[in-house]
UniProtKB/TrEMBL annotation:
This is Acyl-CoA synthetase. Belongs to the ATP-dependent AMP-binding enzyme family. It comes from Hoeflea ulvae. It comes from the Bacteria. Keywords: Fatty acid metabolism, Ligase, Lipid metabolism, Metal-binding.
Length: 551
């Protein structure tokens, strides 16, 4: 048999193959748009040429400390210019960026520093107190660099903390050379960042991203978000969360402007939108609630439409209508830390806008189709590893396959093997596939309520609760029951100025759900959320267990 001519004398070489990396996005933007504003932070304006220069200086200064491939540089930073510089300067050295959740306690931070084998730690002075406690608990002794934000608000609710490091961030960066030229990645499979899961049971797992996935997410985010040239992006999503869904790297693709935001507050968001012409932002449903429920004196008028990317449960129709009236177009996304953030998008079809309200709401409840950078998305039987029928009814586990799935869990091969069993990433989410290829979540496997042998989707019950105009937030978990095994227990947070009774909530649900699916218990208090706006159901499950049997 003759050799395949397409594989003969057509070898890979530096001229025709270069490893993909998100670092190229900033480099290209600085070449084409050197004077365009890349970062807005308070009174500070940084153009693309300076953004790249500072990132290179940071890389050079880290290299002078001995940081190189395989090392971990951890950061405890808000959505500030230093965080954007770290997303580029750290991987320029070949090192891995570890972004720490700024809401964590000292013990959790110490665990991550040790598990990641942190060599350098950059700390915003806002968090110096808790980080100092963490360093006292940790075994690692990293070089600590203090970031003193010159735009820290004078009317901040609390003052900056004390310096705890041996170096000042701005002095450290200024000492680096602007001529630093990266030579990484050697392979696009090289690790670029480390993000820890929430760790609601046991220690969190370290999710490792590679350069290829982060680079591809840059292109995919632009497409899924409908970004044109020079978008203006408001940082309402924490950059520590899945590396800000990879948007710190994405904006370089289209020469966009990052508008930094230390705290998510209604007035600051409206001011940024009106003053800077913000075109895009991302966030959990709580960010939408913050915008919609803001006092009139904190709101600002703006003439353009703002694209709002949101994940988690699909927003209720009332919230979507309120956002539209306020000038926002909501794009519904779904993903996990293990998929670089969003990997599924509810790609809206024009004809759906003509549907009557009920049918339109049904379409909006779907999570959607695979991201442009994801190779495959399926709902499968986890035991047989076969796809379930795409009938919109048969429940299976949601699974992913492609280049925006993590490399694996750091130092945890058993967990990695289990997550990748059968050649697919197992999400742990349960859903159905509709005939048109759109995915719809039904629940987390651990959140399904089994009552009298019947499966009850907590998401379905929550959707019913959200349809009540007095309910601002809701979460449903299982409560032990001597007769039925489990029954739905609803935790409800009311809108300001509204009142409801347990009987009224249950009666509302009975008008929308089968009787056995309705909550048997309703508890009124603030629904606990993570720093990224996700509801902390593990706390509610624990509370429900303490109530005893509902029978």
């Amino acid at each position: 048999m003759s050799a395949n001519p397409y594989e003969t004398d057509l070898d890979r070489n530096p001229a025709n193959y270069q490893p993909l990396t998100p670092l190229a996005h900033l480099e290209r933007a600085a070449l084409i748009h050197p004077d365009h504003v890349a970062i807005i932070h308070g009174n500070l304006r940084v153009n693309y040429a300076s953004f790249l220069e500072r990132s290179r200086r940071l890389a050079n200064a880290l290299s002078d400390l001995g940081i190189s491939g395989g090392d971990t540089v951890s950061v405890m930073l808000s959505n500030t210019p230093a965080m954007l510089e770290a997303h580029h300067g750290v991987p320029m050295t070949g090192a891995v960026l570890h972004s720490i959740n700024t809401r964590l306690d000292a013990q959790a931070i110490a665990f991550q520093l040790d598990h990641a084998e942190c060599k350098v730690l950059i700390v915003d002075r806002e968090f110096s107190g808790v980080v100092a406690e963490a360093l006292a608990l940790a075994e690692m002794r990293p070089t600590v660099i203090d970031y003193d934000d010159t735009e820290y608000p004078e009317d901040a609710p609390f003052p900056k903390g004390e310096r705890i490091g041996t170096l000042d961030y701005d002095d450290f960066v200024s000492a680096g050379s602007a001529d630093f030229n990266r030579t990484v990645p050697v392979d696009e499979w090289d690790s670029v960042s480390l993000n820890y899961t929430s760790g609601t049971t046991g220690n969190p797992k370290g999710v490792v991203y590679h350069h290829r996935g982060a680079a591809l997410m840059g292109y995919a985010n632009v497409i899924a978000s409908g970004m044109g040239r020079h978008p203006v992006y408001l940082w309402t999503l924490p950059m520590f969360h899945c590396n800000g869904w990879c948007f710190p790297w994405t904006l370089g693709v289209v020469g966009g402007t990052h508008v930094c935001l230390r705290w998510v507050r209604a007035k600051a968001m409206y001011d940024a939108i009106a003053d800077h012409g913000v075109t895009h932002l991302c966030g959990a449903p709580i960010v939408m609630s913050t915008l919609l429920n803001a006092p009139d004196d904190e709101k600002r008028d703006f003439s353009h439409t703002v694209s709002f990317n949101t994940a988690a449960a699909p927003p209720p129709e009332a919230v979507l209508a309120g956002m539209a009236d306020a000038g926002f177009e909501v794009v519904h996304l779904y993903g996990l830390t293990e998929t670089y953030g969003p990997a599924v998008v509810n790609e809206w079809k024009d004809q759906w806008s003509e549907l009557e309200l009920g049918a339109r709401t049904t379409k909006k409840a779907r999570q959607g189709v695979r991201y442009p950078a994801l190779e495959d998305l399926a709902v499968m039987n986890p035991d047989t590893m076969e796809k379930v029928p795409a009938d919109g009814e048969t429940i299976g586990e949601v699974m992913f396959r492609g280049n925006i799935v993590m490399k694996g869990y750091l130092k945890n091969p058993a967990a990695s093997d289990e997550a990748f069993r059968g050649g697919w990433f197992h999400s742990g989410d349960l859903g159905v596939m509709h005939p048109d290829g759109y995915l719809q979540l039904k629940d987390r496997s651990k959140d399904i309520i089994i009552s009298g042998g019947e499966n009850i989707s907590s998401i379905e019950v929550e959707d019913a609760l959200f349809k009540h105009p007095a309910i601002m937030a809701a979460a449903v978990v299982a409560r032990p029951d001597d007769k039925w095994g489990e029954t739905p227990c609803a935790f409800v947070e009311l809108r300001p100025g509204h009142t409801l009774t347990e009987a009224e909530v249950i009666e509302h649900c009975r008008g929308l759900l089968a009787r056995f699916k309705c909550p048997r218990t309703v508890i009124f208090h603030e629904v606990p959320k993570t720093s990224t706006g996700k509801i902390q159901k593990f706390l509610l499950r624990n509370e429900a267990k303490t109530l005893g049997s509902s029978s």
